[in-house]
Amino acid sequence: MGELAQLRGLGDKSEEKLNKIGVYSKQDLQAKGTVPTFVELGEPHLCFLYALAGALENRS
């Protein structure tokens, strides 16, 4: 389990998806932004967008 999976609202599977698009840390996610990351992932569920935002804000 890496850094992303330890963030609130994310887990191992989320981290795997994020790693595939070059996001390996909270800083990477902040730099890319939650909406662009969500769009690049092609995630069909808005819940994942909320999870990404919550991970950055330490909320679930």
Task: Kindly describe this structure.
60% of the residues lie in helices and 0% in strands. It contains four helices and no strands. The two termini are 19 Å apart. The chain is mostly helical and 60 residues long.
Question: Key features?
Answer:
globular; 60 residues; mainly alpha
Mean pLDDT, to the nearest integer, reads: 94
Radius of gyration in whole Å, from Cα?
10 Å
> What does the largest sheet look like?
none
- Residue runs with pLDDT of under 50 for 5 or more positions: none
Order of helices and strands: HHHH
- What best-fitting shape do the alpha-carbon axes yield? globular
Distance between the termini: 19 Å
* Class of secondary structure makeup: mainly alpha
Q: Percentage of helical residues?
A: 55-70%
Number of strands: 0
Percent of residues in beta strands = under 5%
